[in-house]
Amino acid sequence: MVRSMTGFGRAEMITGEYRIAVEIKAVNHRYLDLSVKVPRKLNFMEASVRSLLKEYIQRGKVDVFITCEPSADAPVNLRFNESLAKAYIGYFDRMSREFGIKNDITVSKLSALPEIFTMEEESGDEDRLFDLIAPVVREAAGKLVDARTREGENLRKDLLDKLDGMEKEVGLIIERSPKIVEEYRTRLLDKVHELLGSTQVDESLIATEVTAYSDRICTDEEVVRLKSHIDATRGELTKGGSVGRKLDFIAQEMNREANTILSKANDKEVSDAAITLKTEIEKVREQIQNLE
Fold this sequence. Notes:
This protein is of the alpha+beta class. 61% of the residues lie in helices and 15% in strands. The strands form two sheets. It has a four-stranded mixed sheet with strand order 1-2-4-3. Helix 4 runs antiparallel to helix 6 (220-239) and helix 7 (244-264) packs antiparallel against helix 8. It starts with 6 loop residues before the first strand and ends with a helix.
């Protein structure tokens, strides 16, 4: 199956110690551009998270947000900053002497001052912490892939419809091309008869001119290549996988063939068909930009 490059996935898990949440947002990008945002205490696992996500994502600009907060039951350590408390007391004594005011500091007042007591989460084993977070990352990544797959299927159907339309225009060109040559031969003969009257016409000269004209407007090679590109695109969409970059290249080749057909066209119907082809190819290419 083909996948879109846009999507969103979120997963959450609450353990006895942590509340873990992972959000992944992805948009279009030519290559894979991963941005992993984690709390400072989780910086150690950024590379591992990147490696894990590459199992799920091949292209796109992807932003990953990981939060890991201690739960209410998580073990914590209460820290008393004795040196800071002594500094506070020293300044209170100094203020009391210099300003002649009573030093009424108490233990309860001192303990309420900033940074006297702090609660620190117990540092856990890094491997164990990653083992807790990795399944949540995988779940969020899986949901992202599901969202991309759903949108990719819609894109695939739309692209296949456009390819069918392009194939009809190519068929029109194939059908019309021999008629153009025959019509040119008829006009040429009429013009010669008009100029020469009943004089005998040299059929070999007429054939030579018609052949030269046919060579100038011949689009057989371009049409064959264009049909081949359409079939290749249809095949890649059916095969699935990460096909966006390959299909983008094929679309460029299709546009080149359509341009050549348009430049050779000496007929309104063929010109109209080539213009329609170019329009549809551009639409196809825009859609392909959304594929992984």
